[in-house]
């Protein structure tokens, strides 16, 4: 064992006889645990790493929020077919999860996010956006109401400093529970069947964005009908220690129905098809953007952002109320560029003028075309658009211009 | 809702002098005003209290330096009983060996000054003239609401006007101003003057009330600010009956305008409905409504404790985070059984502002000690004998002495209780070396440390400026960008205390300008 992997308090040679009247004191209990230097671990793994690494046939890994997660486990095409035709299981534990609780939790959240939460019932979730004072988006995420005074906010990036600052003057607790809460994403048309097989009763009764506790193989699991695939799908929230067992159990019961383990690349492709922008990739958080021009308002990012009109005060409210009537300067759109093979896309052209930039791109097998998220100037968005693409053949590269059109509505597979 | 059968147009929270000025101005404009003061008397830090029966003194602030004449006239304070015991109070820098320096106000005094300090006299004249030009440039900016930061046109107009005004004052004005803004007063004085006593006195005036020492950047500008404030008030004055007389006259002015001044009335909450301040809740649960609420208490307390975080955006609250006022001056009031004899001080100067600040080094040491939470070994101070010009403050032949001790820490290492006595002893010892025998004249006395001032007179942190007077904390930046121009992000609520532009001291201007803002918002409703 290397010192890095040795559990600090284990002395295998000392045997403690539990039946003995004479109590033996384990000396290890009184030994000081050497503090782990901050540089000891640079590779962070999720609670599900043990099972995903066993599934990996490609050894392709990527970094997601500082965690090592599989990029592709077997083959992206196979994984895609499982997602759209059967069911796909993925490890989404690197998402940031905050527990928000206390007497003022609702008031606190009402001020934090742009939409009105008054109608949010226990065991349901909503998509929320939160802004800073100038109306620029800090982040977006899913907000679950777990109990009367208990909420969970799931975001792509960390926002603890902002959330703590916003907590001043409220009786509210905010805790980052990312490390102790594992998240399994089960998406696809047969995902309900897989859950049924795994022992969740009456899963069809769960409405979109609703959630409830279930007992899967004697493990308590919070099941919510949410996900970023644009398809039927569920997310399973479980204790970090239970998560690998839950994964194995689901794979065991679901595999006969076509359930496959999938990686991060599929998630990116699915959310691109479904039209969900990702913080840090398709837009920059207002606090991360170097200049405010790098940040975006909700009106630029979403077609109909939920900005409450009934709420008197919320962060960014003053600015957003004045921004709402004017058309946004630029918009995040999904572009489709016809090409029979995956290409890498970079900028958006109107004539010869650059009017936008591609933020995420991918090849959609469902459309048989390249699709991309792009931030495009609003004036140019109605006209003819083109995309610059790089085609690679062997070691050579060729720049081409592809005609592009805006996808009016998210893709429904 | 009506309270006691009255429908109010405006409610002023806090009866310090700024709250009183705002209330009086609104009342004189015809608004029905309620002023709610939590304590048992109005005035805040501008009150007169008894040291011991028969001996009264201005409890905290003791000199009226920058109270604008126009406020006095418009609120008819003379009619309401404000009289002056002394006008244009002289300033004397005390010297241990009796070579006191009277800062000259007239040609005759200047001749004496030149005789005493032949080398510095010429420089001093230039220094004062330069300071005067810059102060004349700054003074109008203190008496008006600063331009809105988010209005580029207003800012442009403001800057253009300022540049023109500077150009009119002479080509070097802008140049001088730009040099003065970041300068430390100590460096400037060291470069120009020889007499340590003169330097000490000039630096004392520039730094009094703040925590910075004479070598802190920005202190030169504070000397300009102070001079500009003095111009508004046309010289330092002593009200008959102490500072409480000013507050009394202001309260009478409010009452004359039909306003209600209620003491022992604590506001516990500002009522907010649909994103607007609509009234206040008093302790005891009574709700009083009015379309306009003015808060004369600290901005941070107003927004966090009275309004509540849920009605204010995070950014707007974050801006107030740095506002934790920390006073840097203590007050000592003494009752004396006879007039103390300052060695070779002319009799007519016993009523003057007496400065004990022997040199820049002593000021700097005191500031350093205060910064590390210790008492200055040789305290620097401003001493007044108000009973010299206002004999009714003390029994005949006896006197009261009012001392502001500069550079006293807000938080003492080990707590204040163990150190109050030590501070008094050091102050008396220091005084004794200028006025021998003062220990034997003391009948009674009180000491107010910064925390005492906070507790007793409600001045947050015991800080009379309510936040440093620095360029980045003045004008529309005071107390914070979203709160400049006396406004708050919450419609219907204005700030009218010293936390707003142009800041602390007994100037009445924050209250006056807030009333301006309220009237501009929609007249007297």
Description:
The complex is a heterodimer of chains A (413) and B (525). Chain A has 413 residues and is of the alpha+beta class. Among the domains of chain A are: 96-176, Alpha-Beta Plaits; 329-413, Aminomethyltransferase beta-barrel domains (Elongation Factor Tu (Ef-tu), domain 3), CATH 2.40.30.110. Chain A contains 9 helices and 20 strands. Chain A has helices at 49-55, 76-85, 105-112, 160-166, 191-198, 243-254, 264-274, 298-301, 317-323; strands at residues 44-45, 60-64, 67-72, 87-91, 96-101, 124-131, 137-147, 150-155, 173-176, 181-187, 211-216, 219-224, 233-239, 259-261, 330-337, 344-350, 353-364, 369-377, 385-393, 396-406. A 6-stranded mixed β-sheet of chain A has the order 11-12-13-10-4-14, sandwiched between helices. In chain A, a hairpin with a 2-residue loop joins strand 11 and strand 12 (219-224). Chain A is globular, with a radius of gyration of 24 Å. Mean pLDDT of chain A is 88; it is low at 1-6. With 525 residues, chain B is of the alpha/beta class. Among the domains of chain B are: 10-45 and 242-323 and 462-522, 3-Layer(bba) Sandwich (FAD/NAD(P)-binding domain); 123-233, no CATH class. Chain B has helices at 17-28, 69-74, 107-116, 118-142, 152-168, 172-180, 185-192, 196-207, 219-233, 244-256, 299-307, 314-318, 360-371, 420-432, 438-441, 450-457, 509-522, and strands at residues 10-13, 33-36, 48-52, 55-58, 84-86, 91-93, 101-102, 238-239, 260-262, 267-273, 276-282, 287-289, 292-295, 329-336, 353-356, 380-384, 399-406, 442-448, 493-495. Chain B contains 17 helices and 19 strands. Chain B is globular, with a radius of gyration of 23 Å. In chain B, a hairpin with a 2-residue loop joins strand 10 (267-273) and strand 11 (276-282). A 7-stranded mixed β-sheet of chain B has the order 7-6-15-16-17-14-18, sandwiched between helices. A 5-stranded parallel β-sheet of chain B has the order 9-2-1-13-19. Chain B has a 3-stranded antiparallel β-sheet with strand order 10-11-12, with helices on one face. In chain B, helix 3 (107-116) crosses helix 4 (118-142) and helix 8 crosses helix 9 (219-233). Chain A binds chain B through residues 104, 107-108, 110-112, 132-133, 162, 165-166, 168-170, 312-318, and chain B through 272, 274-275, 304, 308-318, 489.
